[in-house]
Amino acid sequence: MKTLNDFNFKNKKALVRVDFNVPLDENFNVTDVNRIEGAKPTIDKILADGGSVILMSHLGRPKGNESKYSLQHIVKTTSEVLGVPVIFASDCRGEIAHNAAASLQPGQVLLLENLRFYSEEEAGDLAFAKELASLGDIYVNDAFGTAHRAHASTTIIAQFFPENKCFGLLLAKEIESLNRVLNNSVKPVTAVLGGSKVSSKITVIENILDKVDHMIIGGGMTFTFVKALGGKIGDSICEDDKMDLALEILKKAKEKGVQIHIPVDVVAANSFSNDATTQIVDVREIPDGWQGLDAGPKSLENFKKVIMESKTILWNGPLGVFEMPSFANGTITLGEYIAESTENGAFSLVGGGDSVAAVKQFGLEDRMSYVSTGGGAMLEMLEGRVLPGIQAILD
Length: 395
Fold this sequence. Notes:
alpha/beta
């Protein structure tokens, strides 16, 4: 696996695919700089070697050239985060991009305009990839968030750099962290899978059953399992067509010696609202007209024991509707347990949009071993798929 540290970038132009798909407010100010900060170590290393950096990214889902999706909006913030002035090219191809790349000096950073202004990017167009490739000497992929897409700048481009391609520091760390959980873990290994649907996690569950000792199932998924086992779930979310699948998962887990932990009690509400009336009830006895929206205190005590005894922890998905303060306690408490276990020497990997949002919102990010930057990409790796953006560098 070639990484940034296998190259010296002196007098070289590094073409770096980053994921600067950052959120902007109505005045086009960047509201979360995490993704830019994530790429900084890679950019710093290239500049320190005496190289120059050409940054490629997409922003949003533009339909053609839409000014609201211009990367011009992030130039000021990117310059501030990187600590160097960022030059902006108002196109990512053609004369503008080529002239900007040609005149780039060692120590300088160039940001190309949004790749997705051209439909050829998402189509994985060979000619478009070749044109992008002509701008630099070494290709660096540091965009884990888009590694599961076979786009021109994430996958197709790599073939034009048979010897001069590598993973950036961020992408390398993502791969190492996931490998540490999936292939080189210290036992006991616990996976916490939350979120609303069994259907969106089924391939993950099936792939990791061979790699874990414990699996905590929480969030809306809980009720498909509980109903399948004969419990009364009131008005709770449930995928009735996945109940047989839930029973099959429990059977497979038992055969493989994996302990499945499902909430035993829940915070139930009489409506899907932060101001709803709530009560704590047995997960198998939720009254009609009520729905489970968070894990209850007994469940959390049970989960605590498992988490504290774990040496490797994967967390993907919240335990409740944490966006509403009334139903955030389960997710916050679980996060505190994982943080404490990490402080005691466990390795914890948090991934998937909602769990990442939760650890950031509740100030737990710095207490986890690693917080992944790619939701869809991480899920696909957990499902056992080889991501095209990663394979392209390995080939």
